[in-house]
Design goal:
This protein is mostly helical. The protein is built from 6 helices and no strands. Keywords: Membrane, Transmembrane, Transmembrane helix.
């Protein structure tokens, strides 16, 4: 008996999924590099003097973090038949993986260039827990928009901005109270506020690519 032929719908679904994954992966890498460039500029403008080793290590960590966490959000949003809360849970599960990937990338880079990495300011468990809540919420919001048929970038960027401002303000308040330097606060503001907006834009771009392939 001849094997069953793939239906046009199945082929289109496969192509759209590949288009989404490829778009998200490529743009997430660019997002990681772009955010780290902004972080470097913010540190310099705030009076910091970042070393080349630190810049390279932060860049490696930023790219690893962006790729994994944005992939998690995109996967949740792309499962069209799943409820939005499921997308949030998927994004929440990917956040600790992204934290670990960023830490590993940072350590690999510092070892490769022969410097000693900085001790962690907070435990990976605490950071992972906060990021799981933050990106779980972002994944839920983005999936909710996708389920409602939102086709413009504005609502997606607005969701990223809302999540970034809420969680970023909390992190900045804690670091400011702990006496963090101006350069560190500037870098934190970029990472905590700008990045969720960029991640939302990446997920939106992946959805657009998926629709185009259909």
């Amino acid at each position: 008996m001849d094997p069953p032929m793939e239906t046009p719908t199945a082929v289109e679904d496969g192509r759209s999924a590949l288009a989404r994954i490829g778009t998200v992966a490529a743009l997430a890498i660019l997002l990681g590099v772009g955010v780290q460039a902004l972080v470097l500029a913010a540190k310099i403008l705030a009076g910091g003097e970042p070393s080349l080793a630190g810049v390279l290590a932060d860049a490696a960590a930023g790219v690893a973090w962006a790729t994994v966490v944005c992939a998690g959000a995109a996967i949740g949003v792309s499962i069209s038949r799943a409820p939005a809360i499921a997308a949030g849970l998927i994004a929440a599960l990917f956040a600790p993986l992204a934290v670990a990937a960023a830490k590993a990338a940072n350590q690999v880079m510092t070892a490769a260039i022969g410097v000693v990495g900085k001790p962690a300011a907070a435990s990976l468990v605490a950071i992972s827990a906060v990021k799981a809540v933050e990106y779980g919420l972002l994944g839920f919001l983005l999936a909710s928009l996708a389920r409602r048929g939102a086709e413009t970038a504005g609502p997606y960027l607005g969701a990223g901005a809302a999540v970034g401002l809420v969680f970023g303000a909390g992190v900045l308040a804690l670091k400011s109270g702990a006496g963090a330097a101006a350069a560190e606060l500037a870098a934190t503001a970029i990472n905590e506020i700008v990045f969720p907006i960029g991640c939302a834009a990446v997920v939106y771009a992946g959805a657009v690519a998926s629709r185009a392939m259909r």
